[in-house]
Amino acid sequence: MSVNPFDIRTALFAKHAQHVVLIHFPIALFTTAVAFDYFALWTKNRALAAAAYFNLLLAAIFTVPVVATGLAAWQWALEGQKLKGILLMHLVLGCVSSVLIWLVFCIHWSVRSHPENSLPAYRLSIEALAVLLVALTGHLGGFLTGVNGPG
Amino acid sequence: MIRNCMRVAGLAMVMVATAVLWAGSTSVSANPQSPAAAPTDVKIDNFSFGPGTLTVVVGTTVTWTNRDDIPHTVVSTEGVFKSKVMDTDEKFSYTFAKQGTFAYFCSIHPKMTGKVVVQ
Predict the structure, then answer these.
(1) What would the pLDDT profile of B96-113 be if each residue is shown by its tens digit?
(2) Which of A16, A84, A144 sits opposite B70 (nearest CB)?
(3) Of A8, A71, A73, B41, which has fewest CB within 10 angstroms of its CB?
């Protein structure tokens, strides 16, 4: 049977896990948002700050389907069996990363809702930590999918 | 004198060579190679099952060993057998009691597939 890459059924029921496809969006959006936030602070540019905010918003939204598909893969592919090793670390770090992304977004959102306030400096530390955890989670995820192997 | 020494040395070399050849031939005939036992192990390495197709007789227990640095599973396509997640050096065994062809895959990496043919 030939496979048509533009067929919606082929895309939705592809043999690969959708989690692996979706995860690239929050990673890219969040790291870009953090970069914009740092540049906005450095250059005092409001447009960059706005770009950071909307990237954060999209990153936070994308964590929902990513976590959902990750948990679904655990339940369906592995039947929810007790995880250990790299799989467990990937799960825990992924959940913590998602919480941190939402935390950073909430900090930005609360300040944006009250323009008289300014963004707290401690957010920069949380953002840096979140980027580190996102990178580590992504690294483990790449290791699990075997991007370096024929699988 | 020198010519005699050379003759003795040449004779000695011929005798040694004859002894070596004879020893070699007797060792082969004394230890006839028995037919190798059919393998019943599947090694998981570098995101592949090796051998990809394993042929065994009914009643054979096949053991899969994960030699990769990352976890894998062994899941029958038709639900006949299913392993837990296997970390490095962990094993899974299944005894095939019926004839047939049993396709399987790794549920974490579905492109990893293999087959056990039971005769």
Answers:
(1) 999 999 999 998 888 899
(2) A144
(3) A8
A13 touches chain B (CB under 8 A): no
**Are B90 and B47 in a shared domain?**
yes
**Structural domain that includes position B21:** 1-34
Q: What is the pLDDT of residues B13-54, one digit of tens each?
A: 555 445 444 444 434 334 444 445 667 899 999 999 999 999
Pair A129, A100: CB distance under 8 Å: yes
Inspect the interface and report whether the beta carbons of A149 and B46 lie closer than 8 Å.
yes
Chain centroid to CA B44: how far? 13
Per the structure, the count of domains in chain B is 2
Shortest alpha-carbon distance between residue B112 and chain A (Å): 6
Q: Are strands B41-45 and B48-50 parallel, antiparallel or unpaired?
A: antiparallel
Domain shared by B59 and B110, yes or no = yes
The minimal CB distance from B47 to the residues A86, A87, A146 is found for A146
CATH assignment at residue B114: 2.60.40.420
- Enclosing domain of residue A52: 10-143
Compare all CA atoms of chain A with the CA of B82 and give the residue at the minimum distance. Answer: A78
Query: Is A148 inside any structural domain?
Result: no
ipTM score assigned to the predicted complex: 0.72
- The span from the CA of A102 to the CA of A109, in Å, is 10
**Min Cα–Cα distance to chain A from B40, Å:** 23
Nearest CB to A151; choose among B47, B71, B73:
B47
Contacts of B87 in chain A (CB under 8 A): 84-85
Q: What is the pLDDT of residue B20?
A: 42
Q: Residues A57-91, buried b or exposed e (16+ Cβ, 10 A)?
A: bbbbbbbebbbebbeebbeebbeeeebeebbeebb
